[in-house]
TrEMBL record:
It comes from the Bacteria. Pfam families: DUF446 (PF04287). Gene3D superfamilies: YqcC-like (1.20.1440.40). Residues 8-105 form the YqcC-like domain. This is YqcC-like domain-containing protein.
């Protein structure tokens, strides 16, 4: 098992908690068609927060549970920065961006 797994698992829980805290957590799963987008971050079918909930978090949890190799790099915080820059959230996104940056750093940390 990769030594980063426990810290990454904790980080995923923090990301989920922040999505819930901000009211960005959906109770109803999007359709299979919506979830089957091939575009990066599913930009054509999902809001960024939905992508985090329905694509990113489940995939990362599967990687950890099945002891699969972690990605070599992550740029999720950069994507969040681009997405949230287009919205006027008054800093509501700040904590989520901090958590995503910490995730990115964990992914690139030496093993």
């Amino acid at each position: 098992m990769d030594v980063r797994f426990p810290k990454i698992a904790d980080q995923l829980l923090l990301i989920e908690r922040e999505l819930r805290t901000q009211g960005w957590w959906d109770e109803v799963e999007p359709s299979a068609e919506v979830l089957s987008s091939v575009e990066p971050f599913s930009v054509d079918t999902l809001d960024f927060e939905q992508w985090l909930q329905w694509i990113f978090l489940p995939r990362m949890k599967m990687i950890l549970e099945q002891d699969l190799p972690l990605p070599n790099a992550s740029g999720i915080q950069e994507m969040a920065e681009m997405v949230f820059a287009q919205r006027n959230l008054g800093g509501k996104d700040r904590q989520l961006q901090v958590l995503l940056k910490e995730f990115d750093l964990l992914i690139t940390a030496s093993r």
